[in-house]
Amino acid sequence: MKSLGIRNTWLMVKILLLGIFSSVLGFMAFMALLAGEWLITLVLIVVIILGNYIYLSKKPVAAKFFYPGTIFLVIFLVVPIGYTGFMSTQLFKTGNLISKEEAVTQLNAVGLTPAESGVTYDMVVGRYEGNLAVLLTNQLDGTVSLGLRNELRNLNEGEYELGELGYAQSTDGFLVFDLANEPNAEQILSEIKIPVGNDVFIASQGFDFAAEMIETYRYDPATNTLVDVSTGFVWVDNGAGNFVNPDDPEEKLFPGWRAQNSGQNYLALFLDPRLNGPFVSVFIWTIAFSILTMITMFGLGFLVAVVLDKKIRGRNLYRAIMILPYAIPSFMSTLVWAGMFNREIGVFNALLGAEIDWLNDPWLARGALLLVNLWLGFPYFYLVATGALQALPGELEEAAVIDGATSSQIFWRIKLPLVLEILAPLLIASLAFNFNNFNLVYLLTRGGPTDSVDGELAGATDILITYAYKTAFSGAEQDFGLASAISVIIFLIIGALSLWSLRQSKSLEEQR
């Protein structure tokens, strides 16, 4: 009976947790459905059904353990990778950030010009029968109208109340908005567009003022063109996210829209003269930075490990001091180093009695970057090299000494090759990590120095990841599609290095 009671208790707890899980995801699916996100809705429903089946059924035992991890793997790894890959094939940059429907709507909104009638109105914004509405008082003849989304309803005297300023302030069923304290005031005003016939609209021109306007542009879905109403000029869809002048395709209307551009982002990195120069230089520096960092960190760490492998006085104290840079958060150390390299108040210039601009000279900045990364990274290799040295059989060194080998021969021909064989996967992992060492580069040099006068975006110390970040979020033109293409290239390089590292580890295990 006691066992049955415990079993029932756990069943109730499981049902309760599944109920909470299903309720939360069900609510998310409902909100996604309201937003028109059918794919997200479908995925959430599948997740709910699978979760309930796996944990209420006795058969899929292994799935009970794999299911949570698989869900998080898909959400935080597979989806971002897939979405980045998809975005790398899109024209998605400043001026082309919205859908085509939104772009046409905005072109119509910004393309309004005053109608020939010249009629203007005093306006009060509010709601009528739950919908956005405006009370309009004609400034020429004083007539009052109630403007709804698709209707202009004239009001007779006695159906409205005049305010102190002499124009209509309220009518039955009309709830006035306090636009001054309304966080979405601009969006509300942009939605006021009441047709009055002959392509003329009443549109807001401020919080309390409206005028009769006419659309400059009219979209023709049959021909997929945009027509200038005043001149009759036709703008055509160039198939690349913009309406353009057919006689001069470089003349475009903005905003444009997101559009598929296949592999143009990748081709631009190698073929566009504005991009391939900076990209190639950044790519070369990224490889050089990663390799030099790996060599220097391992070299210093291994050297210190060999020195402290011998029994010397105060060895434990020296070992503790050696790992201090590893114990301090790297972002704090990087900011401290940045201050030390400061031209005016930096400690290095104070000690040298000079005003060396360490971080604004390309080669000095690169040297500073390598030095700081060496400081941050060598303790790690010191620790792993110490462990590797202790794992080496002592008989090897004893036999070498008996054979007459010198200390340098033992170091170069025995210790170093064996340690390299043990640490090869870690060296490859370090190489891959420094391909993406965003924090160090951005906190120390921000990728600079950069010749911003010539409009350059890539700096002397930029690596691929910081260049992708700048491409996406810095400068006058933010190009998310191009940044995604750079990210995919980084992913392929890191993926290849990781795969090679795994194969090396496997081959080492087989040799042993």
TrEMBL record:
It is found in: Cell membrane. GO terms for cellular component: maltose transport complex. GO terms for molecular function: ABC-type maltose transporter activity. Residues 283-501 form the ABC transmembrane type-1 domain. PROSITE patterns: ABC_TM1. This is Unannotated protein. CDD domains: TM_PBP2. The chain crosses the membrane at residues 12-32, 38-56, 65-86, 282-308, 320-343, 363-383, 416-435, 480-502. Its main location: membrane. It holds the Pfam family BPD_transp_1. It is a multi-pass membrane protein. GO terms for biological process: maltodextrin transmembrane transport. Keywords: Cell membrane, Membrane, Sugar transport, Transmembrane, Transmembrane helix, Transport.
